[in-house]
Amino acid sequence: MAKEIERKFLVANDDWRALATSATPMRQAYVVLMHDRSVRVRTKNGTSAQLTVKIGQNSLVRDEFEYSIALDDAEEMIALAVGNVIEKVRYTVEHHGFVWEIDAYEGAYQGLVIAEVELRKESDAPPLPHWIGREVTGDRRYSNQALATEKLQQDVLYGLPN
Questions:
Q1: Which of 40, 64, 150, 151 is the most buried (most CB within 10 A)?
Q2: Active site residues
Q3: What is the pTM of this model?
Q4: What is the pLDDT of residues 118-134, one digit of tens each?
């Protein structure tokens, strides 16, 4: 069983862009949604695809299972998705021994930029880069699942205080 342990933040400025070591265009959609689990399909660069099952209600730690699938199957599942298809470019930035994944959203969420850092254990405390803004770990509004199925309000989208 694989555990996903991650923290999620809004991004305060574009300083991270000069540090990015990769950029991967992605499309993702949800084919099954329940309160404590989901099944997601994702394409990368339009050349590969994965099916991901996530189980758990904890926003910091969840069980995660990923499988490579045929691109044609993924495209067919995306066409049958629940809610909206999420489009984004994922960038990676290394910072003090941790890899940060920065998602720059496109389409309906153009302008939203979220950074996630994967942790090895819950007690890890990665030093935060200066371009990191408010932490949104546990704020369901910023989950990809919520973005696919709910309309994020403009004040939330741009990180304004609630």
A1: 40
A2: 30
A3: 0.85
A4: 898 888 899 999 999 99
